[in-house]
Amino acid sequence: MEILSLFEKAVAESKNLTERPSNDTLLQLYSLYKQSTEGDLHTDPPSNPFDFVNKAKYEAWASLKGKSKEAAMQDYIDLVTKLKS
User: Does pTM surpass 0.85?
Assistant: First the structure.
């Protein structure tokens, strides 16, 4: 099965996990998903200093700069597989 099909399957499976992942894991899933689907971050950081959620999302995605979409997809697949077990 090609990486895109495996990634799409993992995305669907991530919505049906039996336990809610920790906030750190959710950020990791978010950033890997964004890197997989959009590539490197291309927006400015949140301007509101009290917008902690969007700031955390921004920083998590920014930390993946330079990672290929395919590598991010594989990391996402691996993380979802780990969460399912």
Answer: yes
52: tokens are: 């902690």
| Whether 8 contacts 33, CB under 8 Å | no
Domain extent at residue 42: 3-84
pLDDT at 49: 86
3-state SS track over the chain: CCHHHHHHHHHHHHCCCCCCCCHHHHHHHHHHHHHHHHCCCCCCCCCCCCCHHHHHHHHHHHCCCCCCHHHHHHHHHHHHHHHHC
CATH at residue 47: 1.20.80.10
Query: Rounded to whole angstroms, how far apart are CA atoms 58 and 27?
Result: 10
**Stretch 56-60: mean pLDDT:** 95
